Amino acid sequence: MTSFNLLLLPGDGIGPEIMTEAKRVLDWAAAEYGVTFNVSEDLIGGCAYEKYGVPLADETLAKAKASDAVVMGSVGGPQWDGKVAYDKRPEAGLLKLRKELDVFANLRSAICFDALADASSLKRDLVAGLDILFVRELSSGVYFGNPRGIEDLPEGGRVGINTQRYTDKEIIRVARVAFEMARKRGSRVASADKANVMESGVLWREEVTKLRDAEYPDVALEHVLADNCAMQLVRAPKQYDIILTDNLFGDILSDAAAMLTGSLGMLPSASLGDGGPGLYEPVHGSAPDIAGKGVANPIAMILSMAMALRYSLGLGEAADRIEKAVDGALNAGFRTGDIMSGGMTRVGTTGMGDAILAELQKN
Ligand SMILES: NC(=O)C1=CN([C@@H]2O[C@H](COP(=O)(O)OP(=O)(O)OC[C@H]3O[C@@H](n4cnc5c(N)ncnc54)[C@H](O)[C@@H]3O)[C@@H](O)[C@H]2O)C=CC1
Ligand SMILES: CC(C)CC(=O)C(=O)O
Ligand SMILES: [Mg+2]
């Protein structure tokens, strides 16, 4: 019997609540496809800091590296903001995990399900049928560059420093992922940078263009300044198929794109490297404002689990069926609070899990 090693890291805030629903979907896949998932669970983020004194323990990292896939909920919360050393904050644990797994390509899929076209903050005709794939560089750039820190200035006062830094190799490897994905989709890539004001953007643009010209002449490439890209996303989002961008711009642009689909609670992600375990996590954070209330939307988490099945475990058909079941649950009128609208059936986190499971049993 085929078996896979999975590490689940529910994390903080709504993480454990939504992970519970993703585990039910995993159990469905195990039974349906006759595979064994050797599932182990551990801590990351604030809860890991409370137990181990660090947001990502060495043992947890070792388990992650030995897994076929790592599926994470979310980290962070106000109880740790400004109260723990900066290098021990929950988010630092997640950044370390991404870096150590060397998952440099973060695929963030912004799909507007038909049933939710009216839940977007934009008009229906702007978002109906929307399907954008962000390919965000994830293991370099300004979140990781040195020098960094907060220093006292000799003349008095302080300075906060972060460094945006990209090597040609880092740009080429993530651009290659975007071009390869483009060949499976609409053969179009829009690359977003700030080449008008940043040298790292100039290099980004040059390397992306060289790679396209040399190896992917069949893929249409457009360069767009990241600020204009943000504006275009709310003006006419369907002009985009794949958006390739760096770590910081990708973080911001994908959260903005989330609202095109109805809610941040809808966006899953897959972070892939060169053959090691993939890391799968929703785009959203730990949502402290709704944590513990049983109302969080588990769809981004469940779709992230589907991406794990597709990209790391070779169970693409199971992933397709899970995505179809989410569509089915939405078409049947089930809504968590974040996507609620008139005439629909309001459910909590577990209720949405029930509705998706019910759809999976039907197919
Ligand atoms: N990957 C991760 O673990 C991330 C962690 N964070 C951390 O999360 C904490 C909170 O950050 P925020 O800026 O509030 O961002 P957030 O993404 O946690 O929440 C933003 C808003 O979206 C809502 N929301 C998010 N996910 C939802 C879901 N599944 N269902 C329904 N509503 C949902 C929240 O209730 C909130 O109103 C911070 O500590 C931050 O550093 C933020 C982003 C990513
Ligand atoms: C380390 C994370 C908290 C940064 C983030 O917001 C993200 O990757 O989406
Ligand atoms: Mg973010």
From TrEMBL:
Cofactor dependency: Mn(2+); Mg(2+)
Catalytic activity annotation: (2R,3S)-3-isopropylmalate + NAD(+) = 4-methyl-2-oxopentanoate + CO2 + NADH
Site for Important for catalysis, residues: 143, 194
Annotated NAD(+) binding sites: 285-297
Keywords of the record: Amino-acid biosynthesis, Branched-chain amino acid biosynthesis, Cytoplasm, Leucine biosynthesis, Magnesium, Manganese, Metal-binding, NAD, Oxidoreductase
Any Gene Ontology biological process: L-leucine biosynthetic process
Cofactor binding annotation: Binds 1 Mg(2+) or Mn(2+) ion per subunit.
GO molecular function ontology, one term from the record: magnesium ion binding
Pathway assigned in UniProt: Amino-acid biosynthesis; L-leucine biosynthesis; L-leucine from 3-methyl-2-oxobutanoate: step 3/4
UniProt-annotated binding residues for substrate: 98, 108, 136, 227
The UniProt record lists the keyword Oxidoreductase: yes
Binding annotation for Mg(2+): 227, 251, 255
InterPro entries: IsoCit/isopropylmalate_DH_CS, IsoPropMal-DH-like_dom, Isopropylmalate_DH
EC number: 1.1.1.85
Domain of life of the source: Bacteria
Isopropylmalate dehydrogenase-like domain residues: 5-356
Keyword ATP-binding: no
Compartments (UniProt record): Cytoplasm
Annotated GO CC locations: cytosol
Subunit field text: Homodimer.
Family: Belongs to the isocitrate and isopropylmalate dehydrogenases family. LeuB type 1 subfamily.
Function: Catalyzes the oxidation of 3-carboxy-2-hydroxy-4-methylpentanoate (3-isopropylmalate) to 3-carboxy-4-methyl-2-oxopentanoate. The product decarboxylates to 4-methyl-2 oxopentanoate.
HAMAP family assigned: LeuB_type1
Protein name from the UniProt record: 3-isopropylmalate dehydrogenase
